[in-house]
Amino acid sequence: MVTAILTALLVVAIVGIIAGVVLVVASHFFKVEVDETFTKVRECLPGANCGACGFAGCDSYAEAVANGKAEANLCVPGGASTVSQLSEILGVELSATEEKVAFVMCNGDCNAVDYMDVVYEGVEGCKASKLIYGGPSACKFGCIGCGDCAEVCPVNAICVHDNLAHINPDLCIACGLCAKTCPNKVIDLIPKKSKVVVMCNNPEKGAVARKHCKNVCFGCKKCERVCPTQAIKVENNIARIDYNKCSGCRECFDSCVTNCIKAVDFYEGTIG
Length: 272
What we know:
This protein is α+β, with helices and mostly antiparallel strands. 33% of the residues lie in helices and 13% in strands. It contains ten helices and nine strands. A hairpin with a 2-residue loop joins strand 6 and strand 7. The longest helix is centred in the first third of the chain and has 29 residues, at 2-30.
C-alpha cells in the first residue's frame, strides 16, 4: 500500500518536472519580445480608452506612438502632463494641445422651451426620440434631454436636469464622445480658457425661434457690433465665437438681449 502511494507521488513529481522543463523551453523559443518604448508610453496614458486621439484605445495609440506612426501629443485627457512625459521618453520636443472642455450649446431647459402635446412611449434615448417628430421639444435644434451623452461619458461628467444636459468641467476629459453621440449636435469642445459661450443651436429666424424658446439667439447682431476684436459673428441666425480672437472682455455677454450668451469660468465651475 505504501509502495503504491510512493510510486504514484514519484510519477506525479516526474510528470511535473517534465512539464516544467517543457514550459521553460517553450517560453524561450516562442516568447514575444516586448517593446520597452511601447510599455513606457502606455504607462503614461490615462487609460480612458476614449478614442479622442483617433485610435481604438490607449493600447492602439501607444503602439502607434512607439512605432512612430502617430504624433505623441494627441491624448486630450492626458493633457500637458502626458505630453511632457512622452516628450522625455521619445527624446523629442512636443507642444501640448490646447486644453478643452465639452459644453452644451443650449439653454432650453423645461422653464424656457415649449413642449409638444404628445406622449412618447418606446425606446428611450435622444436618437430614438428624435425620430418621432424631432423629439418632445418644440425647438428641434436643442438638447433633447434623454441622456445619451451621459451614458457614453467614461468619467460620469454629465447629468440631465430640467430636461437639459449639464457637463461638469472639473470631471470632463474632453474625449468628445458626448459630442459625437448627440443627434442634434448641441455639444461642442471649446477651449477651457474661454470666457463666454453662446448657449443656442437654433438656426431659425428670430421670430420663429422665439416662439419655441425664451432663451434663443435671434440674430440681432448686437453682440457682433460691440465686440472690440471682431471675434463674434452672426451666421445662420446664431452668434458664433472665434476663440482665437476672443479677448475675454465679455462685452457680448453684457449686450445680449435674451441672455443666451453666458459668461463662464470653467476652472472655477461658474456659468452665467
